[in-house]
Amino acid sequence: MSLQRRSRTGARHLMPVPAIEAVAKDERMIRIARRALGNGAVPFRATLFDKSARANWLVVWHQDTALPLEVRNDSAEWGPWSLKAGVLYAHAPAWALSRVLALRIHLDASTGDNGPLRVLPGSHLGGVLSDDEILDLARTRENVESLVPRGGVLAMRPLLVHSSSKARDAEPRRVLHIEYADTLDLGPGLRLALA
């Protein structure tokens, strides 16, 4: 995949790429998103993760709490704010994140040796957690490796506590991570940006 937004570890803000947009809006993907979000499900952000022998990284336990927004707001619920490659982001409250679902298309098989996603089942039900709460959960709960065959799709909520280890072999693990919301308009002055 030749992408101008590409870095060594993948690429972000891919929704404007016509081929990525077509995949995100494929009826099979929309059907999965609608099961969780209702009939208004719409894709808004796409990211490519490319873990390989050349780009082998560790991801610590965390939740995905930042959302891209079209404009900044003054609500105390949102923030801190940041700008990533020209796109405005804010850490979002749990009520907004509960309206989002990620569908992860595995371009390569995810195996126990190529640094698969690890999750703490049910952890998304606890809302937005502090770093200490996340570490405590990771120490006390059993985690599950998400092993997915090539072409498989894994659905996850942004508040699901997750991580990944470094790969132990040279097999690549590429994942196209597409996020959907029940609507782009989360409330007055709160419109998700396409990223």
Keywords, separated by commas or semicolons:
195 residues, alpha+beta, Jelly Rolls, six-stranded antiparallel beta sheet, four-stranded antiparallel beta sheet, 16% helix, 32% strand, globular
Average predicted local confidence, pLDDT: 93
Question: What spatial order of strands do you see in the largest sheet?
Answer: 1-2-3-13-8-11
Question: What's the β-strand tally?
Answer: 15
What percent of residues adopt helix (DSSP H or I)?
10-25%
Main beta sheet, described?
6 strands, antiparallel
Question: CATH H level: which superfamily?
Answer: q2cbj1_9rhob like domain
Number of helices: 4
Radius of gyration of CA atoms, rounded to a whole number: 16 Å
Q: Are there runs of 5+ residues with pLDDT below 50, and where?
A: none
Structural class: alpha+beta
Total separate domains: 1
CATH fold name:
Jelly Rolls
Per CATH, the architecture is Sandwich
**CATH class group:** Mainly Beta
Strand residue content: 25-35%
Distance between the termini: 18 Å
Shape: globular
String of helices and strands: EEHHEEEEEHEEHEEEEEE
Description:
The structure is a single chain. This protein is an alpha+beta fold. The chain has one domain (6-191): Sandwich (Jelly Rolls), CATH 2.60.120.620. It is 16% helix and 32% strand. The strands form four sheets. Strands 1-2-3-13-8-11 form a six-stranded antiparallel beta sheet. The model has no long low-confidence stretch (mean pLDDT 93).
